[in-house]
Amino acid sequence: MQESVMKAWWDSSHMAGANAAYVEEQYEMYLDNPQSVSDSWRQVFETLPKVDGVELETNHTAIRNQFRQLAALGPTARMSSSAGKDGAAPSDDRQVKVLQLINAYRFRGHQNANLDPLGLWKQPKARDLDLSHHSLTESDMDAVFNVGSYAIGQDTMSLRDLFKSLNRTYCESVGAEYMHITDTEQKRWLQQRIESVEASPQISKEEKVSILKALTAADGMEKYLGAKFPGAKRFSLEGGDALIPMLKGLITEAGTVGTKEVVIGMAHRGRLNVLINVLGKNPSVLFDEFSGKHDNTLGSGDVKYHAGFSSDFATPGGNVHLALAFNPSHLEIVNPVVMGSVRARIDRRNDDFNKVLPITIHGDSAIAGQGVVQETFNMSQTRGFAVGGTVRIVINNQVGFTTSKTEDTRSTQYCTDIAKMVQAPIFHVNSDDPEAVMFVTKLALEYRNKFKKDVVIDLVCYRRHGHNESDEPNATQPLMYQKIKKHPVPRQLYADQLVAEGSLEQRDADRFIEEYRAALDHGACVVEEWRPMTEHSVDWSPFIGHDWDTPYDGAIAIDKLKQLAESVSSYPEEFKLHSRVNKVYQDRKAMAAGEKLLDWGMAENLAYASIVDSGSSIRMTGQDSGRGTFFHRHAVLHNQTDASTFMPLQNISKDQGEIEIFDSVLSEEAVMAFEYGFATAEPTTMTIWEAQFGDFANGAQVVFDQFLSSGEAKWGRLCGLTVLLPHGYEGQGPEHSSARLERFLQLCADHNWQVCVPSTPAQVFNMLRRQMVRPMRKPLIVMSPKSLLRHPLAVSSLEELSEGVFKNVIGEVDEIDPAGVKRVVMCSGKVYYDLLDQRRKNEQTDVAIIRLEQLYPFPQEEAAKIVAEYSHVKDWVWCQEEPQNQGAWYSSQHHFWQAIPDGAKLTYAGREASASPAVGYLSVHNQQQKALVEDALTIK
């Protein structure tokens, strides 16, 4: 008992192991000067136990130093003494101080690095990088010390040489942050690669010329556009020109080691430059876009700096397929979209992470300021969303729009500190040193491929113009822009360097400018590595040119359904289910045997079984997708004995398609964006995202608005993503009633997506099958149920499932003579069952009920056939649970008017308009529900 109490205290104490480094630092300060630590820490150290009256901190220091020395020294060094300048070994204390100095540079050298090309960014000086901090003086400079694990290739060095080497390695153009990584192997690996070349490897003349040509292209493109289209927005790369040789080098290196696809996500800054100088977009096409020329066969289109592009890029290892993702102005939202696209491509390549490389390019203010960045990092190592690491490049121009003061743009030392949450190494690099840029680029790729983790390159640069070219940046950043105005462009700096060192003649540097300008004038591709596309690995052609009325055969034989039903209700005998789950599966076995009608969960699982049985694949994610938030799906079973899992859907047939169901991280925006990216890259997989509650989709609204609803119109991107949004008024309050149906209906246009509200198990079965069987890929928005999952009337027979048709409109199901009908009520969703139940209780035969199961595209022809039976009826009602200003009433009323007979009137029955989706009290909810049902059924 005493041990458990002590353990609980220790785990919660500031003295716990997780704080060891901090405690040690405080103790070091206390030993140097007891007054340098707070009163509370001084009290802790002063009350340390004593043995025979001897204070242990004195003995502890010596012992600790000896152990530190032994731990830091290499095996060879431990066997030999370190000789001083006079041949005598230095004192243990000085040797330990030298090892502490090395460690200090590894931890904090980046703070003293020369990172800002403008020289304006002044970081607080790291005190422990000074020799004096470690009690080392000029008299020690020629003494020779053991350098331990410092990977310079020798065991001993004079302090003078060591100090110079440490500064060259950690305090010049590269500031490496990696000591926050807890994995020793990764830290040692990075140390060896950084320290062995002092962060500055030798590169060939050919590589230098290649870098200069890329910088010339970056600079030449911006100058050309600025002269040809003065004042036009282009969000230029000027100042961050090193991005072009960086990307080209990264792609070349990746292709050399076997990468076959690269997917890039970036916002505005530098996008046009990347399109022309990396992906090989034809400059003449870009110039036409600047001139306002437009292909009328396209959809609504988008501005040129949102456009995506695809091409192939030649490397020594073969062609690499490049894809620059389309994306809107919402900054960092493209990152999870890229990761989803990459995951789909990795799946096609048998989970070989190194075959597909994601590159995301960020702004410094955006990566620190946008919450989706944290969500995306958090997903990066999870089972359902891992992509083997992303190379993340920050174009750090040290200003966000007009905000440049660090205390206004973030609360962290660096804009990249968010990456430390996943222990990603971070390489800060001065963009005016392109050779240093290339060094960290290759290092980043090698790290990513080896450890399958994210890595960040902080490209510290500047922005030569305002946020766009019509802005006046001097108004808000006068000192910065006075400096920028006088600062030479990166191409000029590097050309001068190469000429000075004899690697290049000035006339050659000038010739590169002339040749690039001539190529732009000619209007042809300016990327030597560009190749016609042959590497893309998925064929979309079967899904192009189809519309809603494209015929398809969704019927399935009863015998096949029974076979599938047995499969989805089977699991190993030794598998012990929870008692409630066992009841669900016993019921499913009865349904498979024809002893019970099918409920929602069984029909849904049967739909998935039929899809994978046909050879297609399924991917489903959501916060409770395996079980289902409302305990209905149970597609993933959990053994109560050993917590192992089993998926009946993975055991349907020998040659079935794959199915993956992941309980996702607690995110809507990033997960939804990931699934959108996946669906745009993989048309043969049914991709499903399920919200825990429908209103949680609010957190992903930017994905619905900017991607899912308009991606085809803006960019021509087809997407078959299915979105399940639990929706229904059961008295659960304002936050868990509405999936905000009205928002999705408001976005409906151009037949951009389907909005469905299925009301029976047969309907959900055939709706899901239709989404895959029909040769068309459009998003499907489903208002999925909650209480209907177990409603006694919401059941279906196997025969109804086998018909293979989703009924967009369902007419009257009771035996009511149309001739005697005086009022027709139209509705969608759960309210139908409330209306049906009350009408039966009232024994009414003069009111008919029609269900609209698909609200968009509105099924005008199908509705007309059913409405024709009631052409004599003048009293028509739209009934909904949602408040009048929400739901379908306002957004779809024009469709309802078109559907009813000429001369008929249409009225509304439902809750009054409300700022809130629902009331918070169950009693008030019940009163409102009763009133709206009575209002709908009462003929006035």
Automatic annotation (TrEMBL):
Record CDD domains: TPP_E1_OGDC_like (cd02016)
GO cellular component, one term: oxoglutarate dehydrogenase complex
Catalysed reactions, as listed in the record: N(6)-[(R)-lipoyl]-L-lysyl-[protein] + 2-oxoglutarate + H(+) = N(6)-[(R)-S(8)-succinyldihydrolipoyl]-L-lysyl-[protein] + CO2
Residue span(s) of domain Transketolase-like pyrimidine-binding: 598-791
Any one GO BP annotation for this protein: glycolytic process
SMART domains (UniProt xref): Transket_pyr
Gene3D superfamilies named among the record's database cross-references: 3.40.50.12470, 3.40.50.970, Multifunctional 2-oxoglutarate metabolism enzyme, C-terminal domain (3.40.50.11610), TPP helical domain (1.10.287.1150)
Cofactor(s) listed in the protein's UniProt record: thiamine diphosphate
Alphabetical keyword list: Glycolysis, Oxidoreductase, Thiamine pyrophosphate
Alphabetized Pfam families for the sequence: 2-oxogl_dehyd_N, E1_dh, OxoGdeHyase_C, Transket_pyr
GO molecular function, one term: oxoglutarate dehydrogenase (succinyl-transferring) activity
EC id: 1.2.4.2
Chain's role: E1 component of the 2-oxoglutarate dehydrogenase (OGDH) complex which catalyzes the decarboxylation of 2-oxoglutarate, the first step in the conversion of 2-oxoglutarate to succinyl-CoA and CO(2).
Family designation: Belongs to the alpha-ketoglutarate dehydrogenase family.
Record's subunit section: Homodimer. Part of the 2-oxoglutarate dehydrogenase (OGDH) complex composed of E1 (2-oxoglutarate dehydrogenase), E2 (dihydrolipoamide succinyltransferase) and E3 (dihydrolipoamide dehydrogenase); the complex contains multiple copies of the three enzymatic components (E1, E2 and E3).
Protein name stated in the entry: 2-oxoglutarate dehydrogenase E1 component
Biological source species: Alteromonas confluentis
Organism classification: Bacteria, Pseudomonadati, Pseudomonadota, Gammaproteobacteria, Alteromonadales
